[in-house]
Design a protein that fits this description.
There is one protein chain. With about 230 residues, this protein is α/β, with parallel strands linked by helices. It has a domain of about 90 residues: Rossmann fold (3-Layer(aba) Sandwich), CATH 3.40.50. It has ten helices and six strands. Helix 3 runs antiparallel to helix 4 and helix 4 runs antiparallel to helix 7. This is Hflx-type G domain-containing protein.
């Protein structure tokens, strides 16, 4: 389209090597844009996954990110092999080397996904056991939720005296953290939980992969929605 050509001229003039598109692209759309613009194109989901991968600190967090990445990559295997089209007249030809490699890649990804899901199922079972044990403690659980970068970790640190990483950047927290907090007005304590931040139109790969983390919110007695007062929305 005209806009695509216009952007392509800007990309060429400024020698841009990576273009980020703030929406979800199909593999074909991503391939076509890369051909038109002659640079790497990352869509919204791909960017979020890359940020999550750089933020994951715990084994559980890394497992969840890898599962999401593999689910995303699997749908883009054909795009990765489009260079074979010129060699054999189209990726849809039956029996070509590209098709064989794609099938092998899919099997490898599927096998890894099965192993990751089994490991995450063990995490879910462990978390359920921990939640069951926490019900025996006479302290209610309060979960801090809200959009990413809204200030949840900063509030968590101020209330608990903890040193959870709190920075002015998206997805600084991926792994839930819990601390006991004394509440003078109720002459007792609560368990405060810092959780992964929300993002509008969260990619489906992340919703499924981060089930173990998101379930921590479901087990809370009280959910506190933290909002950034200066945000326009």
């Amino acid at each position: 389209s005209g806009k695509s050509k216009e952007l392509g001229c800007v990309i060429k003039a400024k020698e841009i090597v990576v273009a980020v598109v703030d929406t979800e692209l199909t593999p074909i759309q991503q391939r076509n844009l890369e051909r038109a613009w002659q640079c790497k194109v990352i869509d919204r989901t791909g960017l979020i996954l890359e940020i999550f991968a750089s933020r994951a600190q715990t084994k559980e967090g890394r497992l969840q990110v890898e599962l999401a990445q593999l689910t995303y990559q699997r749908s883009r295997l054909v795009r990765s092999w489009t260079h074979l089209e010129r060699q054999r007249g189209g990726i849809g030809t039956v029996g070509g080397p590209g098709e064989t490699q794609i099938e092998a890649d899919r099997r490898e990804i599927d096998d890894r996904v099965v192993r990751l899901r089994k490991q995450l199922e063990a995490v879910v079972r462990t978390r359920k056991l921990h939640r069951k044990n926490r019900t025996k403690v006479p302290f209610p659980i309060v979960a801090l939720v809200g959009y990413t970068n809204a200030g949840k970790s900063t509030l968590f640190n101020r209330l608990t005296g903890a040193k959870v990483m709190a920075k002015n950047r998206l997805f600084a927290t991926l792994d839930p953290t819990m601390r006991a907090v004394d509440i003078p007005c109720r002459a007792g304590s609560v368990i405060l939980s810092d959780t992964v931040g929300f993002v509008s139109a969260l990619p489906t790969q992340l919703v499924a992969a981060f089930r173990a983390t998101l379930e921590e919110v479901l087990g809370a007695d009280l959910i506190v929605h933290v909002r950034d007062i200066v945000h326009p929305d």
